[in-house]
Write a structure and sequence with these properties.
With 207 residues, the protein is mainly alpha-helical. It contains 10 helices and no strands. It has helices at 25-45, 51-58, 62-68, 72-95, 102-116, 118-126, 131-134, 136-156, 165-181, 188-200. α1 packs across α2.
Length: 207
C-alpha cells in the first residue's frame, strides 16, 4: 500500500478565491442537498452513480457538484464527514435530555450510519483516507459526545462500569465490520438486530 498523504478535499463551504466573505446561503443549501442526495444514492445504488446524475437528483446543475466536489473521492469524504457531524449534533441533543440510556440511542444511530455508508467507508479505506486524520475535530467531537453519555449511563447503572470510551468506539467500529460480514448492510432491520446484540454486551451483567 502506498504511504501517500492524500490531498484533503474541502469538507465545508469555502470562500471564493480572493474573497473572505462567507458563501451565499443558497450555495450552502445546494452543497447540503448534494451531500444528502449523494449519501442516499450511494447507499441504495452503489458508488458507480455519476456525479451528473447526483446533480440531477439533487436539483442542481452539474457545475455546482463539480465545483464543490471535483472528484468522486472528494464527495465520498465529504459525505462521511457530514455523517459524523450529524451524529455529533444528535449526541448534543441527547445530552440535553435526562435519559440515562441515551448512550444506546446514539450508539445505535452510529452503527446504522456506518451500515448505510459502508460502501463509502470502504472506498475511503481503499484510497487510504483515515477519517480521524481527515476530520480530527469532528471525530474528537463525536468521541466527546459518546464519553459524556457513557459517564451518565455509568452513574445510572445502565451500562457496565468496566467499559471505557475508547473501548466503546472500538466496539462501534467492529460493529460496522460485523454488519457488513453478515451482508446486513443492505437491510436496516438486520443491521439493527445485529447492533442490538452487540450493544447488549455493554449492559450490566445480571446478578
Amino acid at each position: 500500500m502506498s504511504s501517500r498523504t492524500p490531498e484533503r478535499p474541502s469538507t465545508g463551504p469555502s470562500p471564493t478565491a480572493g474573497n473572505d466573505r462567507e458563501p451565499r446561503a443558497d450555495a450552502r443549501r445546494n452543497r447540503e442537498q448534494v451531500l444528502r442526495t449523494a449519501q442516499q444514492l450511494f447507499a441504495t445504488q452503489g458508488l458507480g452513480i455519476p456525479l451528473d446524475e447526483i446533480a440531477r437528483r439533487a436539483g442542481v446543475g452539474p457545475g455546482t457538484v463539480h465545483r464543490h466536489f471535483p472528484t468522486k473521492e472528494s464527495l465520498y469524504l465529504a459525505v462521511a464527514i457530514d455523517q459524523i457531524r450529524r451524529l455529533v449534533t444528535e449526541g448534543e441533543a441527547l445530552a440535553g435530555t435526562d435519559d440515562p440510556a441515551a448512550l444506546f440511542t446514539l450508539l445505535s444511530r452510529m452503527m446504522a450510519s456506518g451500515a448505510e455508508n459502508a460502501a463509502v467507508k470502504s472506498a475511503l479505506t481503499a484510497a487510504e483516507f483515515d477519517l480521524r486524520n481527515a476530520a480530527p475535530d469532528a471525530a474528537a467531537d463525536l468521541t466527546r459526545q459518546v464519553a459524556g453519555l457513557l459517564d451518565r449511563a455509568r452513574h445510572a447503572g445502565v451500562v457496565r462500569r468496566d467499559v471505557a470510551v475508547d473501548e466503546v468506539m472500538a466496539i462501534v467500529a467492529g460493529a460496522f465490520a460485523a454488519i457488513r460480514h453478515a451482508g446486513a448492510d443492505i437491510s436496516r432491520e438486520r443491521s439493527a438486530h445485529i447492533a442490538r446484540i452487540i450493544l447488549d454486551g455493554l449492559r450490566p451483567r445480571p446478578r
